[in-house]
Amino acid sequence: AQTIHQWPVAEIKAVGSPLSLGCTIKGKSSPNLYWYWQATGGTLQQLFYSITVGQVESVVQLNLSASRPKDDQFILSTEKLLLSHSGFYLCAWSPWGGGQDTQYFGPGTRLLVL
Amino acid sequence: AQSVTQPDARVTVSEGASLQLRCKYSYSGTPYLFWYVQYPRQGLQLLLKYYSGDPVVQGVNGFEAEFSKSNSSFHLRKASVHWSDSAVYFCVLSTGYQNFYFGKGTSLTVIP
After folding, report:
1. Share of chain A above pLDDT 90, in %
2. Where along chain B do its domains lie?
3. Which positions in chain B touch A100 (Cβ < 8 Å)?
4. Which of A43, A51, A102 is the closest to B34 by Cβ?
5. Is the CB of residue A1 less than 8 Å from the CB of residue A25?
6. What is the per-residue pLDDT for A1?
7. Residue-number span of the structural domain to which A79 is assigned
């Protein structure tokens, strides 16, 4: 069975500090990977997606970057956090081969920027 | 441009009552549609999906949804709700090519 982990579970960070959030998928080779951001009480905004190692496509620019250093790992980062980065970050995967496939979401990372 | 509209931000129903959550989409091509549920402080779980064929699709926990191309809608229904159904429900449109569009969500409260 496939499992998806996100780390950390929660973070409190200062404005201007760096950030790195991680996501790992086990039990599935070559998945499509996605990062979403959810403002408190809001909808999900797709940030990035990746269909293969080393290749990441940006959907929305929020002064964030993403990388896929391994087949099963997706990293979201920034060098300088803004207050507007606060929210809930969700990683998701879908089977390779078609963007219409079902997405499976991780438990999320809650970020508070002060 | 593609979009999803969930016109009801909040819905309150009594336990045992029937439920309909509305979803309208905007997309000129063939839509792939999903309903997800999010329980407090958790990730999203898939309820059901529609790709093609029978416009009424069955999902988990007694949920079903009906696709209407003429109305550009994909409404979610349940015959009898339980207090544990209280959550936020998202309607999602995929246009392929790794692009997914989420509605703003409908927060459902079931009163015991």
Report:
1. 74
2. 3-111
3. 32, 51, 94-96
4. A102
5. no
6. 83
7. 3-97+104-113
- Do residues A30 and A83 touch, judged by C-beta distance below 8 A? no
User: Is the minimum CB–CB distance between A40 and chain B shorter than 8 Å?
Assistant: no
Architecture of domain B3-111: Sandwich (2.60)
- When divided into structural domains, chain A yields a total of 1
Which has more pLDDT, B99 or B48?
B48
Reported as a pLDDT band with limits 50, 70 and 90, residue A96 is confident
Where residue A25 sits, what CATH number does that domain have? 2.60.40.10
Average pLDDT over residues A17-38: 94
CA dist B24 → A48, A76, B20, B91 (Å): 25, 31, 13, 9
Location of structure tokens 């070559």: A30
In the prediction, which pLDDT does B40 show? 84
Question: Strand B10-14 to strand B106-111: parallel, antiparallel, or no bridges (unpaired)?
Answer: parallel
